[in-house]
Design goal:
Blueprint (H helix, E strand, L loop, with lengths): L5 H4 L6 E5 L6 H10 L2 E4 L5 H4 L9 H12 L3 E9 L18 H18 L6 E6 L14 H6 L3 H12 L4 E6 L5 H16 L6 E4 L2 E3 L5 H12 L4 E10 L4 H5 L11 H20 L4 E6 L32 H7 L2
Bound molecules: ligand G3I.
Catalytic activity: Endohydrolysis of (1->4)-beta-D-xylosidic linkages in xylans
Pfam families: Glyco_hydro_10 (PF00331)
GO molecular function: endo-1,4-beta-xylanase activity
Length: 335
Amino acid sequence: LAQKTLKDAYKDFFPVGVAVSARGLTGPDADLITSQFNSITPENAMKMGPIHPEPNRYAWEGPDAIVAFAQQNGMKLRGHTLCWHNQTPRWFFTDSSGKQVSREVLLARLKQHINDVVGRYKGKIYAWDVVNEAVPDTGTSIYRRSKFYEIIGEDYIEKAFEYAHAADPSAKLFYNDYNTESASKREKIFQLLKKLKEKKVPIDGVGLQGHWSIYEPTAAEIEKSITQFESLGLAVQITELDVSVHPKEHERRAHRPTDNGTLTAEMVTRQTAQYKMLFDTFRKHKGTITGVTFWNVSDKSTWLDNFPVPNRKDYPLLFDQNLQPKQAFHEVVDF
Ligand code: G3I
């Protein structure tokens, strides 16, 4: 009996994607990627540091390989990410004597960077995470105090979108963030996006990263984010989905069961139910949700193995350490 796949199960809803590295595109991983998914996102390769390590030098090799893989296999490709406070090299903000650059210089660099990267893959990347994580988790300001904000001011965000739109007018442009279901951050992100829409900034959608756990969020919290952002005329994508079996810091404080790092039957049961709930919710918002991407391929290796606790194994995905589908996979494809 041929087993169902994610991409077939969801063909009438949205593409199902996965974050990849250039090195991970061979062997059994590549087979799983091409058989289950119809979209990929480079996990790190297109970020400013990896792709633009020095002024006037781009490292195109990894990104080019990922683009070629998508094309050869008829997969969609999401670009990630053009402007982020993390993984941006120090040279970007300083001149040759180490002094911080002016607003004009930083804007010119941002424009050049976006023009070069988006321009190179024009027509091959259907959606870009243009600005990533610009809203802070705490405080009342809607703007994270990043170098981009400090040097340029709040309009660095709209400028980034304008540069990206100019470089590839048909690419779908996204604002991407995490913790989008916490009430206060949801509201701040909403205010930012509303402002951008009012200013006619070329933004098409919002990415809810979806770094969730077996405890949170609830369906109601997710739906509130989806419908609120949809009300601005924006598409919604889940861009970095994983469901950690370990409680987040604030969840630990909420008297969750003690967790010594080992995988328990209760974790598996909760994770299966959480994944079912998530995809039931996504299907309800057919039309608004235009993509769901997992952040890594299988439990064999995930960024959560080292975050937030170094060397604590996590099991956040639909495929186990041997690349076999977990019970959560079956809940997701059988509906
Ligand atoms: O490439 C170097 C390697 O040369 C070096 O030997 C090694 C030693 O630590 O580090 C390697 O770089 C690491 C890189 O991943 C590639 O593996 C970095 O240290 C590490 O910090 C980096 O982590 C990435 C993280 O973003 C950076 O903040 C994760 O892989 C990646 O999954 C994660 O992805 C982010 C999204 O882009 C945005 N949203 C949150 C998400 C999770 O943090």
